[in-house]
Design goal:
It is built from nine helices and six strands, in the order βαββααβαααααββα. The protein has helices at 16-31, 58-66, 70-86, 103-113, 118-130, 139-148, 153-158, 163-178, 201-214, and strands at residues 5-11, 38-44, 56-57, 98-99, 186-189, 193-196. The chain has a four-stranded mixed beta sheet, sandwiched between helices. Strands 3-4 form a two-stranded antiparallel ribbon. The chain starts with a strand and ends with a helix.
Length: 215
C-alpha cells in the first residue's frame, strides 16, 4: 500500500480564491482518478482576525483593506462569479453582504477532522456564506452546517466555548504564519513544497502526477 499524498490547504471560509483553488484542485484529482491517493487537511487562516461580531459591509471592508473602488470590486466579483460557474460553484454577491469573523468556523473544522468530515463541512460553510447569503459567524448557522454534514451539533458547538479547542486554532494559525504563510490559499504538498493562489487545473495535475510517480 503506497502512502497517500498529504495535502494541507491553509485557507479561510470567506476567501473566494480559496474556494476556486480547491475546486480546481478537486477537478485535477478527479481527472487523474487520484481520489484514493490524496489526504486533504484544512488548516486555519483568518483573513480578518480582528473582525468584530457585527461584521462589516463587504464593499466598505475591501475598499478599506485593499483600496479597491466599488467599480473595481464589482468587476472582480463578476470575474469570480464566472469562474465559479465554470467550476460548479455559485458566488452570489449582493449589496448588503458582510465580511464576518470566522474563528468559530475554524474551531468546528478542527472538530470535523476527527470524523473525516472536514472537507464536507468546509464546503458547506463556504457555500452558506457565498451562495446562500448566510452569516457563518452565527451559532445557528454553524449548528445547521454541522447537522447538514451529519456531525453531532451539540458536541461540536460545545467546542466553541472550550479554551483548549480555541487555543489549538490560535497555535495552528501562528505555526503557518511562522512558516511564512501570509496569503491564502496556500496549498502544501507532503509538508515539502507549497504553492499559493488559485492555480490552474493543469498546474495541479502536473504537481500531482509528479508526486504520484515519486510515491
Amino acid at each position: 500500500m503506497t502512502n497517500k499524498i498529504k495535502i494541507d490547504i491553509v485557507s479561510d471560509v470567506v476567501c473566494p480564491w480559496c474556494t476556486i483553488g480547491y475546486k480546481r484542485l478537486e477537478k485535477a484529482i478527479k481527472q487523474l482518478g487520484a481520489e484514493n491517493k490524496v489526504d486533504i487537511t484544512w488548516q486555519p487562516f483568518e483573513l480578518n482576525p480582528n473582525m468584530p461580531a457585527k461584521g462589516q459591509n463587504i464593499t466598505e471592508h475591501i475598499e478599506e483593506k485593499y483600496g479597491s473602488t466599488a467599480e473595481q470590486q464589482k468587476e472582480s466579483q463578476q470575474n469570480m462569479t464566472d469562474i465559479g460557474e465554470n467550476l460548479g460553484f455559485k458566488f452570489d454577491y449582493f449589496k448588503e453582504m458582510r465580511m464576518v469573523n470566522t474563528f468559530d468556523a475554524h474551531v468546528l473544522l478542527e472538530y470535523a477532522k476527527d470524523f473525516g468530515k472536514q472537507t464536507e463541512l468546509k464546503m458547506c460553510l463556504t457555500t452558506s456564506f457565498f451562495s446562500e447569503r448566510k452569516d457563518v459567524s452565527k451559532r445557528d448557522i454553524l449548528k445547521e452546517a454541522l447537522e447538514t454534514v451529519g456531525l453531532n451539533a451539540k458536541e461540536g458547538l460545545s467546542k466553541l466555548d472550550n479554551e483548549s479547542a480555541r487555543k489549538t486554532i490560535t497555535t495552528k494559525q501562528n505555526y503557518w504564519k511562522s512558516l511564512g504563510v501570509n496569503s491564502v490559499p496556500t496549498i502544501v504538498f507532503n509538508k515539502k513544497s507549497a504553492i499559493t493562489g488559485a492555480q490552474p487545473i493543469d498546474t495541479f495535475k502536473q504537481i500531482l502526477t509528479e508526486l504520484i510517480a515519486e510515491q
